[in-house]
Design goal:
The complex is a heterodimer of chains A (152) and B (147). By secondary structure, chain A is of the alpha+beta class. Chain A has a single domain, classed as 2-Layer Sandwich (Alpha-D-Glucose-1,6-Bisphosphate, Chain A, domain 4). Chain A has five helices and seven strands; from the N terminus they run βααββββαββαα. Chain A has a seven-stranded antiparallel β-sheet with strand order 1-7-6-5-4-3-2. Chain A is globular and about 45 Å long. Chain B starts with 9 loop residues before the first strand and ends in a 6-residue tail after the last helix. In chain B, a hairpin with a 2-residue loop joins β2 and β3. Chain B is globular, with a radius of gyration of 15 Å. Helices cover 27% and strands 34% of the residues of chain B. With 147 residues, chain B is an alpha+beta fold. Chain B has a domain of 96 residues: START domain (Alpha-D-Glucose-1,6-Bisphosphate, Chain A, domain 4), CATH 3.30.530.20. Classes of the chains: A alpha+beta (152), B alpha+beta (147). Chains A and B meet through β1 and α5 of A and β1 and α5 of B.
């Protein structure tokens, strides 16, 4: 994040005043994801081995392509990741994204996103580093806590 | 954060739906800070940053740079723990950058931790994100993160 070479394992975290179930719904339902995930509609049956895709809002094209690796509602979702919106990133191998949802004792929930297996995908690693994932997590937190998108 | 040895430069970021002035006020006013900063009341006075815990323990650190409402740099000593308090001071930088969409990016950099390995370990992991998450919730909803 502060180095010139983006890390091959990137970790992003945020505490949210919401239940694990609410967070699970927000990360797996297109009605929610269009409001904080760069406008994309995430579609997936969440069955391991089936597709995980982030479509443009009009469903005309796929921005990010992947496959569900592990799904354990409402605690853990793991899927592969290949960014199709950029031709150079689309040529790189799949990387991996893990969402972990951990309830805390005080009524909040810790959401951790780990984007790893980026060793062979330097352009993807650079693209998702910096504020990329925090834009998503900040927007998700605002949506769940206020009912509105962060830029509304 | 993912390694066993805590990093000597740690970066934490969050986007907040608020103005730079609102974020600055929340960072520097005790009535705000006690609601998200582990209960600590913080005040900037005469070039020092004063901290007072709920138990009445207090200390102060040097302010290196104060440029409201955009940038605050101050020394950091974890006085709340005797072992950490004995280490060399490290440095914390808060940067507030307004975005095009009515939000601000708040970036917190905790660095110069080379001479403070226990402090580096103590503040790594979820420590700073707990503070930043609480600050965001307080500004956007008017309520503390943890009820």
């Amino acid at each position: 994040m502060t180095t010139m070479t983006a890390l091959a394992t990137q970790v992003y975290q945020v505490f949210i005043k919401a239940t694990p179930e609410q967070i699970w719904e927000a990360i797996t339902t297109p009605e929610f994801t269009t409001k904080y995930f760069y406008g994309t509609a995430v579609e997936s049956t969440l069955e391991p081995g089936t597709p995980w895709k982030a479509h443009t809002t009009d469903r005309a094209s796929v921005m990010v392509d992947g496959e569900v690796i592990e799904s354990e509602p409402p605690r853990r979702l793991q899927h592969s990741w290949r960014a199709l919106f950029d031709p150079e990133q689309a040529e790189e191998p799949y990387s991996r994204v893990t969402w972990e949802i951990e309830p805390q004792e005080n009524g909040t929930t810790l959401l951790t996103v780990v984007h790893d297996q980026l060793e062979e995908s330097p352009k993807t690693a650079a693209s998702v580093s910096g504020t990329g994932w925090m834009t998503v997590l900040s927007g998700l937190k605002t949506l769940l806590e206020t009912g509105k998108p962060i830029d509304a | 954060m993912t390694t066993m040895t805590a990093q000597t430069t740690q970066v934490y970021q969050v986007f907040i739906r608020a103005t730079p002035e609102q974020i600055w006020e929340a960072m520097t006013t005790p009535e705000f800070t006690e609601q998200y900063f582990h209960g600590v009341r913080l005040e900037l006075r005469d070039g020092r940053r004063y901290s007072t815990t709920r138990n009445g323990v207090s200390w102060d650190e040097a302010i290196v740079e104060e440029d409201p409402p955009r940038r605050l740099v101050h020394e950091w000593v974890s006085y709340y723990d005797p072992e950490m308090a004995a280490e060399e001071p490290s440095r914390v930088t808060w940067e507030i950058e307004p975005q095009d969409n009515g939000t601000c990016l708040l970036t917190l950099v905790h660095d110069r931790l080379e001479g403070a390995p226990k402090t580096a370990a103590g503040v790594s992991g979820t420590g700073w994100m707990h503070v930043l998450s609480g600050l965001k919730t307080l500004l956007e909803t008017g309520e503390p993160l943890a009820g």
